[in-house]
Design brief:
This protein starts with 6 loop residues before the first strand and ends with a helix. A 5-stranded parallel β-sheet has the order 2-5-1-6-7, with helices on both faces. Strands 3-4 form a two-stranded antiparallel ribbon. α1 packs across α6 (184-194). With 198 residues, it is of the alpha/beta class. It has 6 helices and 7 strands. The protein has one domain (10-190): P-loop containing nucleotide triphosphate hydrolases (Rossmann fold), CATH 3.40.50.
Length: 198
């Protein structure tokens, strides 16, 4: 559709480095004169949602699917004044003003891409593929330090909920990706080569 802003989806398992990769990609795009907007699927976790009996919060059911699709569709045409936000520590919903100019949208997340791929046109789908041991260490560090969760709780959650949920919900995304990234530096080059921007 003419006039639509390109959307780039950055997906992959928990603690794979999606947020970091998106930030590095945004920096490279800015250096080329572009104005990226970053959107995190984590900002669309449901308010007051009771964790799934099998997967806890590691499921697409925990995401406000309709709102995520609606806001991504609207942001393609610069038709939004604010975006939803979610505090992972307090689990409270808010919003953030969308008062920046942008010519490309980078949307990243583990849970969320399953809900909009095929429904919202993407210019490029990128899958971040990181070894599981590295991811387990990163998630433990992040959840204990930034989200103030007890270490034993995080370890139990990773083994009983995160890994089974990844096999069910996230691994299939790898087969839908245009680019699979296994290292930030080489991956940035591959992604920049494949993004078609105005």
């Amino acid at each position: 559709m003419s006039g639509a802003i390109p959307l780039v989806c950055i997906c992959g398992p928990s603690a794979a480095g999606k947020t970091t990769f998106a930030a590095h990609l945004a920096e490279k795009l800015r250096a080329r004169g572009h104005h990226p907007l970053l959107i995190a699927c984590d900002d669309y976790y449901r308010s007051g949602w009771s964790p799934h009996a099998r997967y806890g919060f590691d499921t697409v059911d925990a995401i406000e699917a309709d709102l995520l699709r609606l806001q991504l569709s609207a942001v393609r045409y610069r038709q939004l004044d604010s975006l939803r936000s979610y505090d992972m520590r307090t689990r409270k919903v808010g919003s953030r003003l969308l008062n920046q100019s942008y010519d490309v949208v980078l949307v990243e997340g583990s849970y969320g891409p399953q809900l909009f791929l095929g429904a919202v046109p993407m210019s490029l789908v990128v899958y971040i593929d990181t070894p599981v041991v590295r991811r387990l260490v990163r998630r433990l560090w992040r959840d204990v330090r930034e989200r103030q969760r007890p270490a034993l709780y995080v370890i139990r959650q990773m083994l009983s909920q995160m890994l089974p949920a990844e096999r069910r919900f996230i691994l299939p995304l790898k087969h839908r990706a245009d680019v699979v990234v296994r290292g930030v530096e080489s991956g940035l080059g591959d992604v920049l080569e494949n993004i078609v921007l105005p």
